[in-house]
Amino acid sequence: MSRILTGIQSTGVPHLGNILGAIMPAIKLSKEAGNDCLFFIADLHSLTTIKDADKIKHNSYAVAAAWLAFGFDIEKNIFYRQSDVPAVCELQWYLNCMTPFPMLANAHSFKDKSEKLSDVNAGLFTYPVLMSADILLYDAEIVPVGKDQEQHLEMTRVIGRSFNHQYGETFVIPEAKFHTETMHVQGTDGNKMSKSYDNFIDIFLPDKKLRKQIMGIVTDSTGVDEAKDTETCNVFGLYKILADSDQIEAMRAKYAATNSGFGYGHAKQEFFELIVAKFEKERARFNELMEDKDLLDTELKKGAAKAQAIASEVLGKVRSKMGFK
Ligand code: ADP
Ligand code: TRP
C-alpha cells in the first residue's frame, strides 16, 4: 500500500493540458489497487501570486469541480483544500526554523523572480517550505509532480531528513514520481499549453465560447484547395491527441486532398465537435457542480476532516519531539 499525495495550484480553471497531462493520469493512478491518495487544492500557495479573494475562491471551486467531473473517487481517497487544514501552517513554521537560508535563496521559484526583489514576498521565498509541510504532514510516500517540481521535492527530502536527524525518526521521506513528458499538449499558438501564455483551451466553457477559442488556433495560410501539412498543423496536433485512429486517418486524408474545399476552419469545427462529444458527461457535471457550491463545500470539508485526522497525529508527534507538549 503506497500513500500518494499531490497538490494542485488553484491559479485558474484547469485547461485541456492540465486535464490530459495531470488530472486524468492522477485519477488513473488512484484507481490502481493498494494506492491510498491524498490530492489537495494548494490555495495557500496560490496566494503568493493571486491576492483577489473572489478569484482564489472561484479557482478552488473550479479545480474541485474538474477533478470530481473527471471521476476522482472522493469516498475512497482524500480530496481537500489546503487552507481547510491550517495545521500545515504550524508545521511550516517548525520547518522554516530548520531550513537554511541559502537553500531557499537557491530555489528556482524564488531565483526566477529575484531580479526585482521588491516584487518578492516572503511567501514566495518560503514556498518550498510550505510544500514540504504539505508532504511531510501526511506521511506521503510518493509525490507525483511535473519535472519542474524536482527541486522542491529534493528540498522536502533534505528538510525531512534534517528534522529526523535532529529529533529522531519522525517523518516519512517521500519519493518523487515524475509525470512522463510524453504528454505535452500544445496550446492554440503551438507552444506548450499554459495558463501563463493565454494559449489554452478551456473545455468547460459554454459551446459558443469554446468554439471561439478553437477558431483562434493559429494556422498557416494554406488555402482550402491545397494539401496541408499534418506535421506542422496546430489543429491536427491537438485533434490527434483526442481522436481515435479511424478519425485520425479520415482527417489525415482530408489534409492530403487537393481541390477538396476543406480548409482549416472545417478542421477546427471537427475538433470542436470532437471535444463536445468526448467530454459531454464531464462538461455537464462540471457545470452542475459549479452551480452547487454548497455540495462542493460539503465534499471538501469531508475531505479536510479526513486529512485533519492524519495531520493531527503527525503534528502531535512533531510538537512533542520539539518540546512543545
Ligand atoms: P500552467 O502551465 O497552465 O500554469 P500548471 O503548471 O499549473 O499549468 O500545471 C499543472 C499540471 O498540469 C502540471 O503538473 C503538468 O503536469 C500539467 N500540465 C500543464 N500544462 C500541460 C500541458 N500543456 N501538457 C501536458 N500537461 C500539462
Ligand atoms: N508547487 C506545486 C506546483 O506548482 C503544487 C504543490 C503545492 C504541490 N504543494 C504540493 C505538489 C505538495 C505536490 C506536493 O505544481
Which keywords apply here?
about 325 residues, mainly alpha, Rossmann fold, Tyrosyl-Transfer RNA Synthetase, 2 domains, two-stranded parallel ribbon, binds adenosine-5'-diphosphate
Q: What would a concise description of this structure say?
A:
The protein is mostly helical.
Question: How does this model look, in words?
Answer:
With 325 residues, the protein is mostly helical. It has two domains: 2-186 and 293-322, 3-Layer(aba) Sandwich (Rossmann fold), CATH 3.40.50.620; 207-278, Tyrosyl-Transfer RNA Synthetase (Orthogonal Bundle). The protein is built from 15 helices and five strands. It has helices at residues 16-31, 43-46, 53-69, 87-96, 101-105, 108-111, 122-125, 127-136, 150-167, 207-215, 234-242, 245-256, 264-278, 280-290, 293-322; strands at 2-9, 35-42, 78-81, 142-145, 175-178. The protein has a three-stranded parallel sheet. It has a two-stranded parallel sheet with strand order 4-5. Strand 4 (142-145), helix 9 (150-167) and strand 5 form a beta-alpha-beta unit. The relative contact order is 0.14.
Please outline the helices and strands.
Elements: E1 2-9, H1 16-31, E2 35-42, H2 43-46, H3 53-69, E3 78-81, H4 87-96, H5 101-105, H6 108-111, H7 122-125, H8 127-136, E4 142-145, H9 150-167, E5 175-178, H10 207-215, H11 234-242, H12 245-256, H13 264-278, H14 280-290, H15 293-322
Parallel strand pairs: 1-2, 2-3, 4-5
Bound molecules: adenosine-5'-diphosphate and tryptophan (TRP).
Tryptophan (TRP) is lined by residues 5-7, 9, 42, 45, 131, 134-135, 143, 145, 149.
